[in-house]
Amino acid sequence: MTQSKSRRLTSTRRTFIAAGTVVTVLGIPHVLRAQPKPVKVGLIHPVTGFVAYSGQQSRIGAAMAIEDVNKAGGIKSMGGAMLESVLGDSQSKVEVGVSEVEKMNEAGVAAYIGCFQSPVGIAASQAAAKYNTPFIIDVGASDLLVNRGLKNVFRLKPGFGKCADDAIVALGEINKAAGSPAKSAVLVHESGEFGTGTAKLLAGKLPSIGVEAKELIPHDNPTRNMDNIALRIRGIQPDILIMSNYVNEYTLLARTLHQQKVNLVSMFSVLGGGFNYKLVKDLPDVAENMMDYNHWFNPKSSKAQDLKKRVEAAGALFTFEVYLTYNSVMLLADALERAKAADKDKLIEALATSSWSTDIVPYGPTKFVNGQNEGGKAAGLQVQKGDIQVVYPAQFASASAVFPRPKLN
Question: What pLDDT sits at residue 33?
């Protein structure tokens, strides 16, 4: 065979193959359709540092929500656009959280969700405001997050102001129903924005329910030893200890008081960072009968129970970080659906006018006022017989409160 004939045959074969390809493509029109660009969501959490466990739990919730949205067909009004996570580690540091915002802006994120710690969230959301990018606070409790007039910031859960108000009402009603055995309190709190702000609010409100705030005791983060604080509490002899701190210090203080057999009418925390299933699992004797006023799932919700089983099947615990971040992603997905685009102005408007609701948490329909959801509500919780029960309010309660708690032997 001559070289020229060989080239002709090769050319003919290529033409045939190319023609076949054209026929095949034309025969399947959907192949020609451009797939919609994914919507990038910036997730900023402390997955290293002293609150790494909480940040990792938030990531679990975000990953499950993104999976659920995408499995259900993505954002349908955007042609089925998938959500795509862009992960950032704040390392529990304000400056690193801001740096993650800048990097994610370069990556083209449509919105941010984070940051667990209030100081990091305050700085990161301020940085996001420069780019007019929506920022959904999933866990941060400080009311400064939503009191700065930033139109890009939204928080689905209630902050420490609302939680403190509701916690005082709950504690007052529980105490009164038991014959008012609690008449004094000591407040122990971490020295940052979250703990200091919460403790000051509570101390000012305790007299309204007949409880005297005898002392406020701050501590640094991290704190490795609580012996001196426990000795101070023993010396003051309050009826109630109220704690507002992050997971490690919360757990350490509870364990120290139990070891020193400091008897109290109640250990009652507000937004206690360590009040979760991990505490119950690791330190069941310490945790028993401890109380907290915090974000919790609705025990009467089948969706919440299904999500809990799914998280536990993956080898994790169903802590509040999981479902708060899960719901934050779902809120964003609903806003994207209504905005019909990842355009930042449209997305901010969709979030601001949101009426999204879920029964996973005991909230009413979403209604944002200056970025704060007025429909969010925390709940009164207590560890009972190795489980966490809702004891307040009555419509969501799964058990009655044990108050005062039995004395330590």
Answer: 60
